[in-house]
Structures are given as C-alpha cells and as structure tokens.
Amino acid sequence: MAEKITNTEEKKGTWLTFRPDIKVLDCTIRDGGLVNNFNFEDDFVKAVYNTCVEIGVDYMEMGKIVDKKVMDPEKYGPWNFCEEEDIRRIVGENNTDLKIAVMADIGRSFKENILPKEDSVVDMIRVAAYIHQIPAALELLEDAHAKGYETTFNLMAISKVSDSHLDEALGIIMESNADVVYLVDSFGTYYSESIRKLTKKYLSAAEGKNKKIGIHTHNNQQLAYANTIESLILGTSYLDATISGLGRGAGNCPLELLMGFLKNPKYHIVPLLKFIEKYIVPLREQMHWGYEIPYMLTGQLNEHPRAAMKFIDDKETDFINFYYSLLDSQE
Amino acid sequence: MAEKITNTEEKKGTWLTFRPDIKVLDCTIRDGGLVNNFNFEDDFVKAVYNTCVEIGVDYMEMGKIVDKKVMDPEKYGPWNFCEEEDIRRIVGENNTDLKIAVMADIGRSFKENILPKEDSVVDMIRVAAYIHQIPAALELLEDAHAKGYETTFNLMAISKVSDSHLDEALGIIMESNADVVYLVDSFGTYYSESIRKLTKKYLSAAEGKNKKIGIHTHNNQQLAYANTIESLILGTSYLDATISGLGRGAGNCPLELLMGFLKNPKYHIVPLLKFIEKYIVPLREQMHWGYEIPYMLTGQLNEHPRAAMKFIDDKETDFINFYYSLLDSQE
Lengths: 331, 331
What we know:
homodimer; 331 residues; alpha/beta; TIM Barrel; 2 domains; eight-stranded parallel barrel; 12 helices
C-alpha cells in the first residue's frame, strides 16, 4: 500500500477505512509536566511508555530539554531536562516501533542540549516558539535537523497574532527543514470554524514543501478532541493527545477519545484503559487538571490560562469577579 | 428586522453577528432530574428559573408530565410530574419573556396530563418518543397542538435506526403540527461528520413544512457542545443545553459554553456564573454527572449509558472488564 501521502486529495478516510499518514503523538509527560513541574515518578513514566508501545502510538514526548543552567533541577523534575541517561532509564535502547520526542523551548534549550543523533535514543526534536522567536527557533531546528533528528515547528499563541503576521510566519517556517508544522491552539480559544480555516491555511502553506501538518489543542471549551478530529478530517496528519487529557490547565485532547475515532488496526484502546484504571484514577486525587469554568472563561476571551490556574489553585469560586478581572485586563 | 427565518440561506451568522431564529432551551431540571429522580428543592428550581430569565434563555423545561398512576410520587420528585400547582409555585404567572416547556413520555404521559392551554402557564409540550412509538406520540402531540401549545417532536435513539427507517419516520413527523423537530443524540455517539449529515437530512425533510429543527446532545465523547454549534452553523434553530451540563450520565451541552458562542446581545453569561458558583459548586459534592471513561465507552460503541451509570454508581474501575462486557452485549 502506498505510504506516501501528499497534502491533497489522497488523504481521505471514511469511518470504516483509515489513513496511513496519521501519526499519534502522546505528550502526557510533557504537557502533564506543566502541572507538576515534571515531577513524575519513573514508574509512571515507564508505564506511559509501555502503554504507548502496546496501543500503537507513533511518538511519545518524554518532556522538555531545558538547560539546567536556566531552570533549577531542585525545583523541576528530570522530565523538564530529559537528559539522555534519564530517558534511557525508561526506554533502554527503545527497540520498539514507538519513536521518542522531546521539546525544545526557545531561550531555555540550546544546541548543546541536543546530542549528536548517534548518541541518543531520541528520534524527534519539537521546537516550540512564539512568533517573535522564529529566527532563534529556526536556528535550533536546523541544528537538530543537521544532526539527523526529525523536527517539528510548534508555533504557539497564534490566536494573538494577526492573519498577515501568521501568513508571513508560515511562509518562513515552510522554507525550513521542519518535517511537521503544528497548528497549536495554546489558549483553547478556537471553534471548529476557525480550526477549519487555519487547517486549510497551514495545509496550503505546506503545499509542495514536503511537510506534514500537526495539531495540538487545549480543552478550555471542551473542544480539544472535536477540533482535533475536525482538523484531521481536512488533512492534518500528526495528532497530539495526552492520556485522559492530562496537561496544563484544562488539559489536552484525551488519547482514549482519539483511539475511539481512529480506525487503523495498529491502535488498541484496551491497554490504555488499564493504564487509566491503574494510574489516572489515583492520580486525580493528587493532581488537578481538566475543564473547569475559569479555563472556559480564559478560552472564550482568548487569554493565557495562567490567571485561571492561579484562581483554581487558590480554591476561589467567585467566577463573576474573575470574569470581570479578565475583561479589565483586556482594556 | 425580519424575525421570520426559513430553512435556507437566510440562516447565516458570522462571529460578530447573530441569528434571531436561534432559541436556547434550558433543560437542566428535566435532564438533571434523570440523575436524582427529579428531587430538586424548590429553591434550586426557582434559582434556575430566575437565572434563565436574567440570561435571556428562551425556554425552560421544568420537567416531565408523567402520570402519577404510572410512576410513584413517593419515589420521584415533583418535576417528574410537573403538575400545574408545582410549576406555579416556581414561576407564578410567569410574566417574563421566558417560555415554559415540559416533556411528555410516550406510555407515561397522556392527554389528561395536559391541561387546556388557558388553565396553564406552560407554553410548550415536548413529546419524546422512540421510533416505534411515533403513532402514539403524534396523537399526543396533536392533542397538545389542538389545545394551543407549541410542540416539539424529539425522536430518540436514532443511532440505532436504519437510514431508511429514519427517512420514513421524518416523513411522517414532518406532516404533523410539531413546531420543532429535534435531532437527538441520545447515546452521545455522533461525531461532527454524522451531525452535519443528520442536520442536513432534518433540515431537508423540514423544507416547506413550516418547522424549525432543534438539537439535543449528550457529552459521552466530549462532543455535546461541539456538535451543538456544528449543527447550529448549518441551520438548526433550537438548542438544548443544561447548566454545567447537568444531565443523565455524561450530561448535556453546557449552557455556559453555548453562551460564550452566541452573539445575540439578549444573552448574558454573568448571572449564569453566579448561579454556578452558588448552586453547582456545592451540588457537585452530592450529585455526579459529566464525562467519564465508562460513558465514553458506551458512546463509542453506540450503546445506552445505563450500564455505565450502574458501573459508576457501584464505584467500579475495571474499565477493561466493562469494555468487554459492552462488546459481548453487542454480539
């Protein structure tokens, strides 16, 4: 069967077929790490890894590759730094079909944090950047590409950016060696109509550039899963998800929902259900994430969720006051 | 401004305009009543009513009009029966713009449970029926129509029905005097693609029949809100929602999310936020509803959520066993 899929009409599936270009990327540890400062126990990370292997996930993001000179390893767990020995403690030589990804943050991750490919079990470097960081991000991405890694460019917070700036940004990014360019809904603010427009914009910008488009969503308005499948139907190939939506604030597209939608027989939901019973049910007693009213409000108002995270951490419930404070901050 | 909207091109809104044909129906007490056997305190029901008035909701469904000979008033609260005196205790003469709706169940509600219109503060009778109950449902609906009520036909569990049977059913229903015909996703099983196809089917069947289309969703796959806005974009006019999604199993489309999407200045979110703080936050300590893994599984497998409700009530967490038992029951 033809594995090669272009950004055009070939990418059609029906509810009884599947598209081989679809790749699922689990970012439970990385986006979930934003909730607990990357302090996951090895046992948990290893269980996520084993589950990803068993259920046919294509990539697992182990965390960030922040430089320890920039953030304090006393305050942040190993998955904020993803040193090679930490990753290998979990995956060994990773003799599986699951590929390993890590995320680089501009200003916090540098070329020296990326080993030569032959010394690493990492397969993919994902570069996350705001629009003003594009030059620095491209420099890091090209270094990773030259070292032999697959690369993605995750342009963040685009809902705060004008159409013309976004077009310009995509024009530049599509000239890079990034293998995948991600449509990222950082604030969980987009409705399906916007997701469709943006997906078409990204696909169109990628046309002829030998790139795939990916999508990363947040669940502020209970649309993370809906928008992910909306985008994939139009031709997005790389789908980010986290187990039970574990991730910053309202969390992400839940992997188990996505598994229910995807028809490729390589994907299996049962080991994922086992992981959820064993690890997520007890974890919900210790960590808090997922849709709540304050996240809905920041999503509706296209704001970063940090104010909502503080409001919830402080166990406040005066939603009206919170709502007006968000409106005031937009003036 | 022209208030009259047909089922065609006139129904277009953009994100800065609004469609006057859109009507929001709050069914918090009715669908929420399925969680607690309709045992809401008067104070709670009155607060829902006052909130609906303040935030510009168009209809509030007070509950069901089940005959007390069929179900035991010792076991079910007043909102399962909605006798006139109970409703008036909450709404008085209802001198507001909010219309009052109640739901009739086939086999449990009869003509004698529907007062002459002049003796009632109820404005709308919603008739809920399975496909084999259509003749009985139409008899009840026509009686309500003849008495002077607005009427809706809510055909349930259509995901278990063949396309040809559904077409036939819609053909019959569209010849009735129902003012609104509802697209109902009883099991929370539909993806946006199916919702779009079904919305077009319902709109097309209603063409020239002087009817509006409504939508009622369940949140088993976190798609209740997404599917509601997807359907409304295509021309659905009546939108069911419940406060914080309060409703059977995974619950419904959350009213506060819908309020964030609708741009008609008559709708206000702030009093709704106040209600949520005062009533929903404490209620969550006593009642359980909303998305959970077992509801996801019944939704993915197009099954009634009753097995999931029992699983959750029994505080079980063996999701794999539950999943296989659902598969077995489909054999």
